[in-house]
Design goal:
The protein has 76 residues and is α+β, with helices and mostly antiparallel strands. The protein has five helices and two strands, in the order E-H-H-H-H-H-E.
Length: 76
């Protein structure tokens, strides 16, 4: 049995709550807007340091911004 790790984020939801654009958040944590876009779309997993910066920007814990799920994959 193989496990696949899926990560979901609440960044988009939290940006809306704080009325921040992707560009606003990117400037606040000193990354490119595309980085935020890729993280939101699940195309990039941030480093722990970056995840902490994002969580701090929203005054949240990392686990409250990033949700990790494990999915079992069937071996063929």
């Amino acid at each position: 049995m193989e496990l696949k790790n899926n990560m979901k984020t609440r960044i988009k939801e939290l940006r809306a709550k704080f009325n921040l654009t992707q560009d606003d958040l990117a400037n606040k944590i000193k990354v490119r807007r595309e980085t935020i876009l890729f993280i939101e779309n699940g195309k990039y997993n941030p480093s722990l340091k970056l995840a902490k910066k994002i969580a701090n920007a929203f005054n949240e814990k990392i686990d409250d911004v990033f949700i990790f799920e494990q999915e079992e994959l069937e071996n063929e």
